[in-house]
Structures are given as structure tokens and as C-alpha cells.
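Let us practice reading a record.
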Amino acid sequence: MSPTFRAFRNPNYRLYFAVSVVSNTGTWMQRVAQDWLVLHLPGNSGTELGITTGLQFLPILLLTPYAGVIADRFPKRRLMQVAQGLMALTSLALGLVAVLGVAETWHVYLIALLFGVGAAFEAPARQAFVSEMVEPDDLTNAVGLNSASFNAARVVGPAAAGVMIGALGGGVEATGWVILINAVSYLAVIWQLQRLDVALLRSPQVRPRTPGMLREGVRYVRSSPTMVLILILVFFAGTFGMNLQINAALMVTDVFDRGASEFGLFGSALAVGSLAGALANARRARIQLRLVVVAGVAFGVTCVALGLLPTYWTFVAFAPVVGFAAITTLNAANATMQTESDPLMRGRVMALYFTIVMGGTPLGAPLMGWVGQEFGARWTFFLGGSLTTLGVVLAAAVYLRLQGGVRTVLTEVGAPGSLVSRVWDNQAVARARNQSSEQALDPGADAPLSESVPGRSR
């Protein structure tokens, strides 16, 4: 079997992947339809679009850390089914009010908020559940394939939504029918979770409730300079750079004076690059920290470049480059967080990761909507890309400080003072080297926090 698809050796993962393509397609159709719905309600503009997106992601910021604790305490498969059911109901409600022609902006705000509650509890369970389906050696591949599934749907979903909305008249009612399709797609996910072969799952023993579980997860993450670097980087990328749908909606409508079909085409072009990046990452047996940093810089720079393009067609043609850089950043960060974490802590680790990468949206989305309305749509790309690049620089500086400074990081093993670069070495080797040095200097020193958690993945 090709290295790109080696996780397909697992029958559970094959079923999970196939149904995910269907559900993800519905998700992207709703994302486009919801944005179009907000923009076509009376009196709305980029500000209302930003508020809607912010409300949808606000529960992720507030609830996901606690959802991670629940993911470590209860079977993740059942937790995912409940959360998927809640999201199905909210999509059904939004679709119905749009189809019936009674949708108002406050309806969209409320439903988006409730949808976010379901997503907040589903995300950490789903992220951590991948490691229960596949072998450790296939985890990086499975993360890449999941992203490929998401972005394959991202190619089809926006285009299908744009065509369907246009064919049905382009109004509010048309968006409702698209959203109802997504509501049905959640049933497929609930069904496939029920069909999985439990005997093949590598589920850790569920932990009983103990005081301070959330604080324990935070301390665990803070003990790893690699995880700290990733969380800082994805905070800036997620808060300021990943609002591409909002920024693009404003560019397509305000700058290029195009409609729903053209907006959907941009989303598909962006997804083509994301799909290519996901498949390229799926072939990697090991993720180096250098990849996360270089991809983060590339994403910030390409966002700025996207805002400079003069015509709609150059805007669409460059979208795959931005998509490739964005998904490479997120995939490498996600895989590193999972492989660095202990299975007993993975729900909380991935909850903190997801909180950071997505929870900044309630801050970034209204800001970008306001910037687009006051200064023009191009400035949303200029500002988002610049702050993303600044975040990468800040993350690298914090990482170097936690590792003992540039000189410590650049010192070769067994060759004090050598300038052979060590910063992008395998982090497990780096930590083992540091711990050995500390123990040699002080044999009675206490073990670091990461050592206190049995079975921590190196």
C-alpha cells in the first residue's frame, strides 16, 4: 500500500474516512450558505458576518478546555455521537427558518452560538479519537488523511453550495435548502460511529473524575517547549490568518463585485491547495518542528500577497498557494501535539490546542469584519498575514528562551560551543539530552512534570 494511504489498512479508519468525506462536504456547504445568508439579510454587512462567525466559535473558546476533561473521562465515540446530534438539530433549525422565509439576524446569531456548543464538545473527542483507531506509527498519516478528507470536501462543498444557491434564485430561501443538506449529513456520522468494530479500537481506560484535571492538563502542556511554541503560533494563525472565508466574501462582493458562484469557486480553489498540502503531509513518517515554523511564515506572507492581487481571476489562481501553506501549518502542528502527548492526557491536550487554534476566532472574526468595512477588504488580508508572521517570530523567541537560549539550542551533542544547528532536531532527543545533563549535575533533582505522567509519548 502507498505510504500516503497506509492508515487505510485499518478497517475502522476506512469507514471513518469514507463517511467523513460526506459530512465534511455538508459542513462546507453550510459554511458558504450561512455566510451568504447573513450578507443577504436586510441591513447586514461585513460586521454582522464577523459577529456570526465569532458567536459560532465563542463556545470553543469558553467550553473546549472543559470538553477535553470530559473527553478523557468518557468514551469518545459516544461523546462524538451526542455532539453530532446537537449540531444536526441546529443545522435543521437554521435551514427551516431560512426556507420558510422567516430568518432574522438574531436567529442566525442564536443558532450559530448553539452550533458552537456542539462543536466545542465534539472537536477534542474527535481529535483524540484518531489515535484510538490507528497504530502509533500511522498517526501522522491519519492526521494528514483526515485533513485531505476535509479539504476534498472543501473543493466540492463551496462550489456545490454556490451553484445550488444560484440555481435556486440566490436568496435567503436558497441558502436554507443547502443548510438542510448538511443537517442530514450528520446522521451518516452517527451511523458510522455505531458501526465501528470496538474490538479494534485502542481506547485507553477512562479516568475517574479527580480535582484539578484541567490544571493538570495545562501544566502538562507548559512543561513542553515544543507544545508552547505550537500553541503561540496557531493562536496568531487561527485568530488573524484563518478568517479566509470572511475576508474572501468581502473581497468577492465588495472589491470584485461578484456573486455566490464566484465566491464558491474561490473556496474550491483554496481547497485544492489545502488538499495537495494534506496529501503531501500524509506521506511524512515524522514531522519536524522546522516544518511548522516555515509553513507558518509562508502562510502569513501569502495572505498579504493575496490582498495585493488586482483581479478576481488572479485572486482565485493564487488561492491554492495560500491553502497549501495554511493546511501544512495546521497539519504539522496537530500531528506534533498528538505524538508529543500521553494517551491519558490527549483529550485535554487536544482540547487546549483546539481552543487556541479556533477559540481566537471570536476575537479575530469581528475585528476582520470591522477592518473590511472601515478600510476595505484588502486590509483584512494585509493585517491577518502580518500578524500571523509576527506570531511565528514570537513563538520561536519563546521556544528559544524555554530551551535555555540560542546558544544552548545551537550546541551540538558532545561538542560544546559548536554552531551546528540543533533547534530543529528531534525534540525527544533534545529533551532526553537535557534531562541527562541535569541528572549528571544533580542526581537528586526532581523529575520534570512530563516525567510524572506514566507513558508520556516521546
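A brief commentary: The longest helix spans residues 11-40.
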